[in-house]
């Protein structure tokens, strides 16, 4: 396999967004339709296609904790036609489990561009008699059983959030894995599980409709999209600060020129009025987002951060 290529940062101001291949480009999402990454990818792909003339589609490859999607891209053609839509979950999973096939590391993938960053939120079915984190703790203890919380895949950030929350609160929790956050949200609404740590964009509409109730956000401060919801710090859990970030990755072996073109196309699309508005309405943290070499450095920093935290807390999951 070719060596990792270090891609310089490219901004829309210094490079022109254009198609990078005459073939169909596939944005590969390692989850079922309906989750935050899927929603963001569809908006991004549409804007990239509109701005560059590049033919693009979104391809969902759910299951296997992301392994089938990673393998599909990592062993696919090295011409830039396959773009893996990665996220922080790939980093936390590698820290939590013993072996991750085709891990999102330099051996297999080249970071191209971050596409967004968002807080997570603890949500419950609105029919539960809880309106705050304290209420949840009191109710859970009265129930006298393990509370079930959904995770979009084993080892993702929300899985780690549940582990850390259990350690810090003393609440008995059991993780229930799904093939993406979409199915987990459906089961939470129907009452099949008790609670969920999920990204803010994936839950906003359900909170607004009254189907779900948000108890706390994992950002340092309250999020403008959910002004009435306190942070975990306000709720007495300052160590629950964490954000979910998303990014586009190419397999190693893709040329520097192609990787730069993909990064430029994505950066330009993210700066468009359409996506700027959509990202803000979804509760995303404000851009700009890093690209190229800066994104590669960011990913390396995240790998160390979550690896160190998992070692320090002794967190683990059953594979």
UniProtKB/TrEMBL annotation:
Which Gene3D superfamilies does its entry note? Bordetella uptake gene, domain 1, Periplasmic binding protein-like II
Classification via PANTHER family: BLR1237 PROTEIN, TRICARBOXYLATE-BINDING PROTEIN
Q: Which domain of life is it from?
A: Bacteria
| Official protein name in the record | ABC transporter substrate-binding protein
Family to which this protein belongs: Belongs to the UPF0065 (bug) family.
